[in-house]
TrEMBL record:
InterPro entries: HTH_HxlR, WH-like_DNA-bd_sf, WH_DNA-bd_sf. It comes from the Bacteria. This is HTH hxlR-type domain-containing protein. Residues 11-108 form the HTH hxlR-type domain. Residues 150-166 have a biased composition (Basic and acidic residues). Residues 142-178 are annotated as: Disordered. Coiled coil: none annotated. Pfam families: HxlR. Residues 168-178 have a biased composition (Low complexity). Keywords: DNA-binding, Transcription, Transcription regulation.
């Protein structure tokens, strides 16, 4: 069965999934953030078949998230190091970790983000880099960008109309202050 390619879609989420949407890729990136760089380290950590690991490392390298560097001439051996593009994936991993801890870890968190100055566990959130304001559904909505195609604009506009209807419905049922 042929896999659908998302690379040509005008959606930044779809284009991102084209690069990291396969679960092994995300787990390889997780391990790279935890310090793994060598093939055997990834394989030992993940228990992944060598041929699958080779394909995923090649795809992550081709996508510019990892850089393949030779560390031994004889025999030739390589390590895989996060690139700036790969390091930019960190907030996505932290968001997945927080979401997984919140919704799928009844036994408690197996991995946490710790403020090393205080030793306290922290909960990652998304904020506007310009204002520092917390991004929330009440005040922020996805709009079509300048490069959006007609399909993307239609989806975004439908969402904005739905949000407007929800606001209108909630304001008509809310008690008015005098």
């Amino acid at each position: 069965m042929q896999r659908t390619s998302f690379g040509d879609m005008h959606c930044p989420i779809a284009r991102s999934l084209e690069r990291v949407g396969e679960w092994w890729s995300i787990l390889i990136l997780r391990d790279a953030f935890l310090g793994a760089t060598r093939f055997d380290e990834f394989q030992d950590s993940l228990g992944i078949a060598p041929n699958m690991l080779t394909r995923r490392l090649r795809a992550l390298t081709d996508a510019g998230l990892l850089e393949r560097r030779r560390y031994s001439e004889k025999p030739p051996r390589y390590e895989y190091v996060l690139t700036p593009r790969g390091r930019d994936f960190r907030p996505v991993l932290l968001a997945l970790m927080a979401w997984g801890n919140r919704h799928f870890a009844p036994e408690g968190p197996a991995m946490q983000l710790i403020d090393e100055r205080t030793g306290d566990a922290v909960e990652p959130v998304m904020v506007d880099a310009k204002t520092g304001d917390l991004i929330d559904r009440k005040h922020h909505a996805m709009h079509a960008g300048p490069a959006a195609d007609a399909r993307m604009r239609a989806r975004a506009d439908a969402n904005l109309r739905k949000r407007a209807q929800e606001r209108s419905a909630s304001s008509s049922t809310s008690p008015r202050s005098e």
